[in-house]
TrEMBL record:
The protein, known as: Dihydrofolate reductase family protein
Domain spans labelled Bacterial bifunctional deaminase-reductase C-terminal: 2-182
InterPro entries: DHFR-like_dom_sf, RibDG_C, Riboflavin_Biosynth_HTPR
SUPFAM superfamilies, per database record: Dihydrofolate reductase-like (SSF53597)
Organism field: Streptomyces hyderabadensis
Amino acid sequence: MRTLISTAFVSLDGVMEAPGGEPGYRNSGWTVELVDFLPEAYEIKGREQGEATALLLGRVSYEAFSPVWPDMEEFPEYRKMPKYVVSTTLTEDDLVTNWGETTILRSLDEVAALKETEGGPIIVHGSAALNRSLSDAGLIDRYHLLVFPVLLGAGKRLFSEADKDAQKLRLVEHEVYANGIQKNVFDVVR
């Protein structure tokens, strides 16, 4: 079974919306505007590209990333790997042609089936609504979180507010950087 990894920049109060400057959010760009840049705090991002064998996105994140990421020098490995987009509304005509193989998945059942295939880890970037649904369905195996020392209040959150049984996590890696960012890697305990 493949490991499904959720990776996110989150504020201390759990907001993941618009970390890089996306329009339409009051605190857009909070990762670059409110915290000093330290390259070592982002080491995990390069590691993720080397370890992941597929990229999973929700529709909104796909529509935000697909016009930009294919040409970014920072994401060369993502160009090569297969991409999966969970959407009930996208069509093949909506997919970009310069980002490699992309498959549309129509349900969480299809994500569960993808996890049963041969291959290495599948990584989920952004995709707030998808992350919450995957978590609620018990499909996430690991979290890679960079927690920023900011409180944002309103905004899309990484974790669901669904009334459900507690989910235990095991901390398998952590580090705190001089700028206050905390790296926390958690395995989901089943």
